[in-house]
Design brief:
Two copies of one chain form a homodimer. Chain A is an alpha/beta fold and 328 residues long. In chain A, 41% of the residues lie in helices and 17% in strands. Chain A is built from eleven helices and 16 strands. A seven-stranded mixed β-sheet of chain A has the order 5-4-3-6-9-15-16. The first copy, chain A, has a four-stranded mixed β-sheet with strand order 10-7-8-14, covered by helices on one side. In chain A, strand 15 and strand 16 form a beta hairpin. The radius of gyration of chain A is 20 Å and the shape is globular. The interface between A and B is large, with 57 and 57 residues. Strand 5 of chain A pairs parallel with strand 13 of chain B.
Chain lengths: 328, 328
């Protein structure tokens, strides 16, 4: 598995070659790869690698080691449900297998990747249909090609709308603390020739108050059965500002991001990462000595603040439990 | 005039010695000194220095050069009204002067400084009276001793409430792009032994949703006659989140921050600074090459989202045109 190390962008394009499940797990934890769909895909390949090595070590008893590696992969990050969804698929695919499980499992991982790419193109076209000509958009974090198998969820919609000549301007929040907006979203869009204007996270509400923003478009890490949506920290504040300023809020995510086992966002675990990510910048301390930090990296936006949920199986606008159930 | 270079904090405490109005103007523009009241005070001393040099050059005709220097100082930053307020005072103080204007003008600058310090202590006690025991607070940017003659506006309230044993926890946003929260507010509060937990700007709404925040407490750069308040970019988003999550919003500012010549916030000029402040971090480029940025550094919070305006002449809760007029 060859991963573009997203921590190094945009300064350098560094690829990491990985051939064990443990290294995939470490890559997910350390954010070499990030973005809910991309995490799920990487974990699926990790599962296939786990089966290969477990079978090589013990052709008759590979299943126990395989199952343990799935649990190791599952524990890497708590919020994105695509991770568990992909590993559940890899567990189901392994169930009937006997002799050498690798060919069937690498094929399943490949299917997950290819289906994600197709879903993104479908969502791009579908979401773009909601966008009227002359629109200005705001996106947050990176829900792009880098976060998926390619093309992107929120950025897939941006790409499709741009391609259709409908966009006047695309704004992106820089997205502290990892600066995925400044580093990744800007890098992706500019490579496609789509101009982008960065703002600080705190400037989004002022942007919506003083310049017209038609849609705020984001991805999702986990969507509850009622449409409550966990996404990158700061999304909830964007949704509040959008509602106050009559911008509309679009969540773009494949069905693999929907967790039908939880009825509301209250059931979504929100990952908290190291305080150092806030206190330091590029491993240089910037905060005053002695200061502590709290670093939740996702938040939950209530369904009531979301105008449209765009999936590869259709649009639910506004999201409701019934509308979401009908997607399946 | 001896200024603590706030750009160097918290890494080093570097003082800059200044003896010309032009150097004061440059210090305000380059943010060696920042914070609305502190800018006004620095400009007042700059005016006194201008009178001294103008009188030394031309004892009979110093007034023309003095007036020109006042206009140069007035043009340094557009949003904080304390700047114009202090310079208006220095113009009025100069009007009756003949021979050597410096003694009277340095005395006027000194009065502005001393009155600001007294106002901060009065506001601290007054604002703290609104805070019930066991409270948790969130503040934004730095409205502290560093932003004023001492003690602070918003941080004056924090100091007074902490001293009265009423606070459980103080949160501060890091406040991109200049990180005044991480660099300055944390530095100030920790020097006073007040523990502080930093969050990214985007995490504030999630904080208010998941942990109890009783008050969001901020300073102001300019308050319109109806209570609409310009303050550091991101304040409006905090006010929206506070209203959605039943936290209360307190603006702490001396009457010198109130601009009675404008009826609403629509009349407040919002400064936009260089894109590089967003695109770079410590003069290292972090954003993707080719990305542009929009960098408004203040926003306007509507009076309707403010629960209490605390001034040295009393509290207006909620702020109304009548209540604000009664302060004068």
């Amino acid at each position: 598995v060859r991963l573009l190390d997203q921590r190094c962008l945009p300064a350098t394009e560094t690829y990491v070659e990985i051939d064990t499940a443990a290294a995939i797990a470490a890559a997910i934890e350390s954010m070499i790869v990030r973005g809910a769909p991309a995490i799920g895909i990487a974990a699926a390949y990790g599962a296939a690698l786990a089966a290969r090595s477990a079978h090589a070590l013990d052709p008759g008893g590979w299943r126990a080691a395989y199952d343990a590696e799935l649990e190791r992969l599952r524990a890497t990050r708590p919020t994105a449900v695509n991770l568990g969804w992909a590993l559940d698929r890899m567990a189901r695919a392994a169930a009937p297998l006997g002799a050498d499980p690798f060919p069937a499992l690498i094929a399943e991982a490949e299917r997950i990747r290819v289906e994600d790419l197709a879903a993104n193109h479908a969502m791009g076209a579908s979401g773009a249909s909601l966008i009227a000509p002359g629109a200005s958009l705001l996106t947050h974090c990176n829900a792009g090609a880098l976060a998926t198998a390619g093309y992107g969820t929120a950025l897939g919609v941006v790409r499709a709308a741009w391609g259709a000549g409908r966009l006047v301007r695309v704004y992106a929040t820089e997205t502290r603390p990892w600066l995925q907006g400044a580093r990744l979203t800007a890098w992706e869009l500019l490579r496609d020739g789509i101009p982008v204007t960065l703002i600080t996270d705190g400037a989004a509400a002022h942007l919506m108050r003083t310049r017209r923003i038609d849609w705020v478009i984001v991805g999702a890490d986990r969507i509850a059965a009622n449409g409550d949506t966990a996404n990158k920290i700061g999304t909830y504040a964007l949704a509040l500002a959008a509602r106050a300023q009559r911008a509309r809020m679009m969540v773009v995510a494949p069905r693999s991001s929907i967790d039908r086992t939880i009825s509301t966002g209250a059931g979504i675990p929100v990952e908290e990462r190291a305080a150092a990510e806030v206190l330091e910048f590029g491993s240089r301390r910037v905060a005053a000595a002695g200061a502590d930090a709290w670093n939740p990296v996702f938040d939950v936006t209530p369904a009531a603040l979301i105008d449209a949920l765009v999936t590869e199986a259709g649009i639910v606008s506004p999201p409701t439990p019934q509308g979401i159930a009908a997607l399946f």
